[in-house]
Design goal:
Helix content: 40-55%
Number of domains: 1
Number of strands: 7
Strand order of the largest sheet: 1-2-3-4-5-6-7
Strand content: 5-15%
Length: 251
């Protein structure tokens, strides 16, 4: 389930035969000239509408922390997201505060419960993913991650996700602890393969901002060469204009 950052990248990925797509909060923010988590709720909802209505694939939304702290506000925002045409969304338990990077356990569970209620009331069938962010916010505690994900499953999350897991033993432990609920694994580097994760029981894979980073890396390398050396070798290995342009031609 790769992560496009705009409608163009979504349509390119859809052409490659993936069964579903997922948005990336980082990739979306960078495309708007902002850092990750720097996009407003209104901007995020517009982004979700653009992707969901622009491709004929299910789209899972990276809905960050629900753009609110209080459970009631999270529920209201989730309700708005369900009206964009998405097939799923995730809610994180990170606070953005380095000194207290995760919401208190009870509040984190209440936020998932509120999201569940909002989805049920929308009657859209949107799939809810509960995310625990400890491994990417400086709290890499496997037992606590499993405790939180288990609670999120009990609170109504359909899928569970702990970005930052890289050790296969940790991934297997999470999969076994949460079975039969499906687990999503983030792959942001070449530490594993689809086959290896499938063999471990992982049901869903996403790449977060990985593809957006690949794109930005290529742009930075080519543009830096032009700016610093006055040469254009970075433009020599790309597909011809016509090959790229035809991918966006009307069907």
């Amino acid at each position: 389930m790769p992560n496009p950052w705009d409608l163009g990248s979504a349509r390119l990925l859809a052409q490659l035969g993936f069964p579903a797509l997922a948005t990336t909060s980082a990739g979306c923010a960078w495309s708007m000239g902002r850092p990750d988590n720097g996009v407003s709720l209104e901007q995020a909802l517009a982004h979700l509408r653009s992707i969901a209505h622009g491709v004929d694939l299910p789209v899972n939304a990276d809905f960050e922390g629900g753009f609110a702290i209080a459970p009631t506000a999270v529920g209201a925002n989730v309700a708005a997201a369900t009206a964009t045409g998405i097939a799923g969304l995730s809610i994180e338990d990170s606070t953005g505060d380095p000194s207290h990077p995760l919401f208190e356990f009870a509040l984190a569970v209440e936020r998932i419960q509120a999201a569940r209620r909002a989805i049920d009331e929308s009657e859209t069938g949107v799939l809810l993913t509960g995310r625990s962010e400890g491994f990417i916010v400086g709290r890499p505690d496997l037992a606590e991650t499993i405790r939180r994900l288990t609670a999120y499953a009990e609170a109504g999350a359909d899928c569970l996700y702990a970005p930052g897991l890289r050790a296969m033993a940790d991934i297997v432990a999470v999969v076994k602890a949460l079975a039969p609920k499906p687990v999503n694994v983030l792959v942001g580097s070449d530490f594993t393969t689809v086959a290896e994760l499938a063999g471990a029981g992982v049901r869903r894979i996403s790449v977060g901002g990985g593809l957006a980073r690949v794109a930005w890396t290529s742009v930075l390398q080519a543009a830096t060469e032009i700016a610093e050396r006055g040469t254009f070798t970075g433009l020599g290995a790309v597909p011809p204009f016509a090959d790229v342009n035809r991918r966006f031609a009307p069907k």
